[in-house]
Automatic annotation (TrEMBL):
<keyword id="KW-1133">Transmembrane helix</keyword>
<comment type="function">
    <text>Could be a virulence factor.</text>
</comment>
<keyword id="KW-0472">Membrane</keyword>
<feature type="transmembrane region" description="Helical">
    <location>
        <begin position="7"/>
        <end position="25"/>
    </location>
</feature>
<keyword id="KW-1208">Phospholipid metabolism</keyword>
<dbReference type="InterPro" id="IPR001736">
    <property type="entry name" value="PLipase_D/transphosphatidylase"/>
</dbReference>
<dbReference type="Pfam" id="PF13396">
    <property type="entry name" value="PLDc_N"/>
</dbReference>
<feature type="domain" description="PLD phosphodiesterase">
    <location>
        <begin position="387"/>
        <end position="414"/>
    </location>
</feature>
<protein>
    <recommendedName>
        <fullName>Cardiolipin synthase</fullName>
        <ecNumber>2.7.8.-</ecNumber>
    </recommendedName>
</protein>
<keyword id="KW-0808">Transferase</keyword>
<dbReference type="InterPro" id="IPR022924">
    <property type="entry name" value="Cardiolipin_synthase"/>
</dbReference>
<keyword id="KW-0812">Transmembrane</keyword>
<keyword id="KW-0677">Repeat</keyword>
<feature type="domain" description="PLD phosphodiesterase">
    <location>
        <begin position="208"/>
        <end position="235"/>
    </location>
</feature>
<keyword id="KW-1003">Cell membrane</keyword>
<dbReference type="Pfam" id="PF13091">
    <property type="entry name" value="PLDc_2"/>
</dbReference>
<dbReference type="InterPro" id="IPR025202">
    <property type="entry name" value="PLD-like_dom"/>
</dbReference>
Length: 472
């Protein structure tokens, strides 16, 4: 009997491992990831197959496309016509690439306002919610039910009482997995809300590794907010944060103009995927109105698309840079392709500045990051360690002419696994402001001499943490 059971369990292990191997060979593009999963499933009977079932399979197969295939002729007036006399005309190949890659046009006629920290952003967001007349679309990775969160809830409730259509989408992990206080509060107040990719069933576990990291607020289809700012007390630097959370600085952007419709499309697509409800009509997509002069375009990425659009945008921008590339990111764990591109840019004479926090709110991520820095410093990249408070901003500028901002960090999770939303801005004034903001925080430059002082245990710890790069 025992021998029969042993044989049956052995055959089950072989069948499961064969199924996993076939699935990986047919679906995984990353050879290192594929090899690792195959080896893990064969070496670890049952456990390897179960973990692959829960963590390794991408169950999201939405087609990345615009919701509305028919473009209103009036909207074509907002398509940015490229001029070779423009200050950022050297970025034209990137514009053309994104035309094909995203299916979204570069739109002129936009106004962009940069807002630093919750102290400046939250009042503007709450003001817009208070002025809403037709619709409010709000998406946040973290939406806490604390003092600031309650202010947003109160504003949303008042808007709903005025007859405004309100939809709120939060991430199934970031805003509470087992229990989400903000969702319970919103539902009690009658606000239509949902949790993205959330399930307690083990066979429906994409939520563990696939997260909606976007931060979007659209009011009446005309005013939009996006960037890196979550909703919580810790983002109010002028007031002590509640509990044991560390203060978090961040950067958000207020938008007006035709590009706001692209933000709405991102939210509506995520909302429809989560709830099955289709949001359409003038309530959410009113006729676009010019509000400024800045050409802009939304760029999204996530495991539902075949190409990592945000990563490709960054890599192409680095390739086109002539003199200076500037990054500010809270989490920096580049893979070999990304690190090589930055190193090559530095070697050809481009100044590459990378500002990261001295210490973030995730120590393991910092350790993995530190394991990546030696090669970049050796290639000539300038790595800067920012002082507290921890800054959560995600900013990129090229030659003080072009900016790329939004929710995506410079790590594999953001660039390959998370659902992210970024924005390209072709505006010298915005780029100059962001570069000046970044430069003001570049106080301590990391050099090889300092890296060489790290002890062997520290270097081993960092290298070991880097092995978990896909999941940090």
């Amino acid at each position: 009997m025992a021998e029969t059971l042993t044989f049956l369990f052995g055959m089950l292990h072989v069948c499961l491992s064969l199924w996993v191997t076939v699935h990986i060979l047919l679906t995984k593009r990353d050879t290192a990831s594929a090899t690792g999963w195959i080896g893990f499933c064969w070496v670890m009977p049952y456990l390897g197959s179960v973990l692959y079932l829960c963590l390794g399979i991408n169950r999201v197969r939405r087609r990345a496309q615009k919701l509305r295939e028919d473009v209103d002729p009036e909207e074509t007036a907002f398509l940015a016509k490229w001029s070779h006399d423009a200050a950022d005309s050297f970025m034209y190949p990137l514009v053309r690439m994104l035309d094909e890659l995203t299916g979204l046009p570069l739109l002129k006629g936009n106004r962009v306002e940069c807002l630093h920290n919750g102290d400046h952003a939250y009042p503007r967001m709450l003001e817009s919610i208070g002025q809403a007349q037709r619709s409010i679309l709000l998406c946040s990775y973290i939406f806490r039910c604390d003092r600031i969160g309650q202010q947003f809830v109160a504003a949303l409730v008042e808007a709903r009482k005025r007859g405004v259509e309100v939809r709120v989408l939060v991430d199934g992990v970031g805003s509470g997995y087992l229990y989400s206080p903000i969702i319970q509060t919103l539902r009690q107040q009658g606000i239509r809300c949902a949790r993205f990719m959330h399930s307690l069933w083990p066979w429906r576990m994409p939520f563990v590794n696939l997260r909606d990291h976007r931060k979007i607020l659209v009011v009446d289809g005309h005013v939009g907010f996006m960037g890196g700012l979550n909703i919580g007390d810790e983002n109010m630097l002028s007031q002590p944060s509640s509990g044991r959370r560390i203060p978090v600085a961040d950067t958000h952007f207020r938008l007006e103009g035709p590009v706001v419709q692209q933000l709405s499309e991102v939210f509506v697509r995520d909302w429809g995927f989560t709830t099955g409800e289709t949001l359409d009509g003038d309530c959410y997509f009113p006729p676009p109105v010019s509000a400024g002069t800045i050409p802009a375009r939304v760029v999204t990425s996530g495991p539902d698309t075949d190409i990592e659009q945000i990563e490709y945008t960054i890599l192409q921008a680095v390739i086109l840079a002539r003199s200076h590339v500037c990054f500010m990111t809270p989490y920096f764990i580049p893979d070999n392709r990304f690190a090589t591109e930055l190193g090559l840019a530095a070697l050809r004479g481009v100044t590459v500045d990378i500002l990261v926090p001295r210490r973030s709110n995730h120590p393991v991520t910092d350790y993995a990051r530190d394991a990546c820095l030696r090669e970049l410093v050796q290639a000539g990249c300038r790595v800067w360690l920012g002082d507290p408070p921890f800054n959560h901003s995600k900013l990129m500028t090229v030659d003080q002419a072009w900016s790329f901002v939004g929710s995506a960090n410079l790590d594999r999770r953001s660039l390959r696994l998370n659902f992210e939303c970024n924005l390209t801005l072709h505006d010298q004034q915005t780029a100059a402001h962001l570069e000046e903001f970044i430069r003001a925080k570049c106080h301590h430059r990391l050099d090889l001499a300092e890296i060489d002082t790290w002890s062997l245990p520290v270097r081993l710890r960092n290298a070991a943490c880097r092995l978990f790069l896909p999941y940090l």
